[in-house]
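Re: weekly structure request thread

Next one in the queue (228 aa):
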Amino acid sequence: MNLGSSANIASLPGTTAAKEEKEEKKTLGPEAPEHRDLFVRAQRRKLSDERKSVTHKFSVGSHEGYLIVGMHEDGMPGEIFIKMSKEGSTLSGFMDGLAISISIGLQYGVPLKTLVDKLTNTRFEPSGFTQNPEIRYASSVLDYIARWLGGRFISLDYLKPGTATSEGELVTPFRGTAADAANAKSDEASARLAETADAPSCSTCGMLMSPNGSCFKCMNCGGTSGCS
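Done, posted below.
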């Protein structure tokens, strides 16, 4: 066996380069997946530096907060801020993140109705009675915020307890004057109060019940006062 010829083959430039290439591939590992855009990116519609806004104070249970809604020139919301009274709490941090998510969604064209429908009737603490005569009870802070946004910018139907909306339903936003909106809300609230004047509170969730034949039914959780 000629050992000299074997040494010469191992020292060839091509053989050395092949070994280095194999070692480099082992070091790098599998190739990183390539990011591909499957959908056309929507154009972000930012608000102007000066914009109109609405500030709403709310209270759910024993938790108070402020909801600030910045609006586009056409009066539709483009960003929201949620400030809870207890700064630094877990609830306050959660609401800050939620407000950022909703604001970015609105600016990228997500319909407000879609966001409101997803957040309405969510249930977790804190929950309870509110100081708003049009939303007497909220099953969570998200439920209150969603129903207020829906009633303010989409339809007064969102202020009714237990309102369920379908995904494909089209609701025409209220375009009347502020006085017309106030009168419509007042008439609707009066009609609801007349309906539930003698109604008891639900033993499950505390919501005022509505007449249902010879007994009463809770429109919020579905409980009854004894009827089937």
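The longest strand covers residues 52-60. The CA atoms of residues 14 and 20 lie 10 Å apart.
Next request, please.
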